[in-house]
UniProtKB/TrEMBL annotation:
Superkingdom classification of source: Bacteria
Name of this chain's protein: VOC domain-containing protein
InterPro entries per the UniProt record, alphabetical: Glyas_Bleomycin-R_OHBP_Dase (IPR029068), Glyoxalase_6 (IPR041581), VOC_core (IPR037523)
Residue ranges of every copy of the VOC domain listed in the record: 4-115
Residues of the signal peptide: none
A Pfam family recorded for this sequence: Glyoxalase_6
Gene3D superfamilies: 2,3-Dihydroxybiphenyl 1,2-Dioxygenase, domain 1
Transmembrane regions: none
Amino acid sequence: MAVRWEQIVVDAQDAGRLARWWAEALGGWVIVTDEPGEVEIRKSPGELPGLLFTPAAEPKTVKNRLHIDLRPDDQEAEVERLIDMGARHADIGQSDVGWVVLADPEGNEFCVLSSKKDA
């Protein structure tokens, strides 16, 4: 039986706003669905997987059990860019590691890894 990874679903208090934030954060991903109950972004319209943002009435309150890792060419510059966009540093008990943990505008943690050449 074949299976294909379609998308990751993200509950959000403002699905449209958070989808647009992630589309910009991921370097120009595009909105492929924009409806009241869901907003989906993808790298390109026909390319999977996507991120599907759906409305949630309650705010996020605990650490994510699943998160996105980003690997930029320049970790320091990428962290600065994301902070300028509204991300913030997050402490999840990571101590001294080679990646930076940030949270998106709704508090969802994600990691910015060092570049491949530094890894």
